[in-house]
Amino acid sequence: MKIRRFFGKDMREALSQVKAELGSDAVIMSNRKLADGIELVAAYDKEPEAKLSIKKPAPSASGQSKAAVPSLSEIIGDDGPDSLKALLEKQHGGAQTTPSGPAASVNAQHANKIASHLDFSEAFIDDVEASQQTSEFPSHQASSIDESIDESSAPQSNELAQIKEELASLRNVLQYQVADLMEAKSRRKQPVHHYLVQRLTDMGLSASLAEQLISYTPSHYNERDAWVYLLNLLANRINVTGNDILTQQGAVALVGPTGTGKTTTVAKLAARYAQKYGADSVAMITIDTYRIAAFEQLATYGKIIGCTVRKAQSSEELSDLLFQLRHKRLVLIDTAGFSQRDSRLIKQINQFDNGQMQPVKKYLVAQANTQYAALQRIIDAYEGVELSGCIFTKLDECYSLGEVLSAAVEYQLPVSYVTDGQKVPEDIKIAEAKSLVSAAAKLYKKYGLNHTTSNNVVKTARAV
Q1: Which CATH class is domain 245-448?
Q2: pLDDT tens, residue by residue, 204-223
Q3: So where are the chain's domains?
Q4: For residue 396, which of 28, 58, 143, 334 sits 20 to 30 Å off, Cα-Cα?
């Protein structure tokens, strides 16, 4: 066995050199990546020229030549198999009809040689496939040609990456165009339904809730009847029953992000409860130790109302105060306001579930003018907390009310109260579904329609 080395700028060129000089019988022993290309080590049994040349048999001592070896075409015949594999199948399957004598032995020699070449080819292909699957190059077998080409040719990899990016971009564009065509088809098929969905989303409802509501609308309704039907259906989806704090007894805590008006809402509820049952029947506790003058603000409201006001700095103090105020009909707890991404929010909520105090009902306080995405994050932050209801504040500052209504419906959160001002205790009302939906429709009619929105001309030079 002889060994030769071949060099090429990539795997494809090196393999081409091996095949051109040594033929397909050569065995790749190893490969190595160099700075300027690829080095292959190939082994072969004899010179390729000797393999390709046909030598005539030498005459014997008696002067008579040996019998000529029959060629492959003579053995197979003109109508024989066209491929080596077919020949082997014929040799293997036709054992009973195989001729005897010298032709049979020569035939067997050719078949064995062809079978050895086929075995080598199949083994080489198996090694290439195995190396492609495991991404490893065996040192004693043939390596993966495609993988070596990809590793050795960085420009080709960059071109493939660019082609993939262009294909992905084209796919996105086609998907957008197909979706646009489907939407246009739906508009032509059901123009009234599409128009009503657009109005609901403009009013502030989420697209999923708008599609859900429109699916229940009878198809024979005209625009006006369908719109009234949708508003009534939305009002029926809002839960406002059984959450009147002013008719309850026990402890109630208002939780929520900072700036939502929890302290003012606690004072409004305490004042209303004092008017109904007397000032001695209600008490207020604050656990807001982060905001400056938080206790002083609540204490000022307490003096005006005439009720008891206390401060707790830990869960133990809160438990003791609730035990001391157990004779009160209602104890309202004002909590500190944190962002929904603040970890202190969860720690504060956990104070109500330490198992050492009486049960505390928790109500979420959220601004009615909060964005829908922000409302989702706020409600998700209280996912592990059992909320008895929610209170929407600052309705007087809203330009759209559909976002909070959509969040309340989708998260199945009961709406207890709404506030629309700073006056204590006037600006707080029990939530009513029809009133909320009517207010949302009025805000949409006043600020959301095209003829009511202001179109400010933007100067191009100033914008740039």
Answers
A1: alpha beta
A2: 899 899 989 988 888 888 88
A3: 2-50+72-150, 153-189, 245-448
A4: 334
